[in-house]
Amino acid sequence: MRLTWSDVTPKPLWLSRRQLIAGATALAASPALAKIEAAKSAYSTDAEPNSLEDITSYNNFYEFGTGKGDPAEYAGGLTVDPWSIVIDGMVDKPGTYDLADVVKGQPLEERIYRFRCVEAWSMVVPWIGFQLSGLLNRVGVQPSAKFVAFETLVRPEEMPGQSSPFIDWPYREGLRLDEAMHPLTILATGLYGEAMPKQNGAPIRLVVPWKYGFKSIKSIVRISLTDAMPQTTWNMLQPQEYGFYANVNPKVDHPRWSQASERRIGAGLFGGRQDTLMFNGYEAEVASLYAEMDLAKDY
Ligand code: MTE
To answer: Fewer CB atoms inside 10 Å of the end CB: C or N, the chain?
Structure first.
């Protein structure tokens, strides 16, 4: 039998999400079902999170197919333990790190973030994760590094979407170093107090809440520090439509649709349309990163 996340999540936990999760002890023998202890964060929004059902059934994860339901249907077969991440390039301590080692010593927090897809839908997700800056500081970024590049696992035998050459696998993403070091940028290992569901990017993914969702790369196996702007999947596919920065901006439309508003998933067919906020509502925190840029050009 395949359990869904609502089967394994004790209801009181997601009903009392305002309470501190810290103090909860590991519930189950299986690590996938273990509760994650995490402190609340001042960076969380007060907006009501989407249901676990919404977050785990409406996904983009092209390694499992292009349909919104494909990840939930096909990601169950992905092996996420053991898992390791290669950290290389311009770092003092390059190497292949086991996931447990990557996470070791990093303070886990619950971060309730708005999440805005470039396709003009949005959700609110209660992630569990830690600041990417914590990991980068640990491995020692060298002064020559200017960008961080990320890659997702390539394993076609477990990722049926990878049999299609439509994307030049691996899925790739990248950030400028100051974006990567920003306190809002996290590596997430869970949501709703549980280990990351496979369709959401188990066992570890990036979350950059002021950028369109495609920047938040899933199931990461490589993090490289570099001095050149890295190639990124959507920019490689459609450079006129998807820039490297991909900051949420209601004033810069996608060539094929408006970005001025968004459909909040789960808010009902007619009631769910809302204005899109500059930098997805994180303008006060991140606008200074782009003070020198023309946002209409450098999208
Ligand atoms: N990461 C990988 N490896 N493959 C993908 O197809 N899709 C991106 C992003 N990260 C994607 C990915 C897109 S387009 C979005 S909107 C988000 O993941 C969706 O995250 P979610 O399914 O957790 O909502």
So the answer is: N
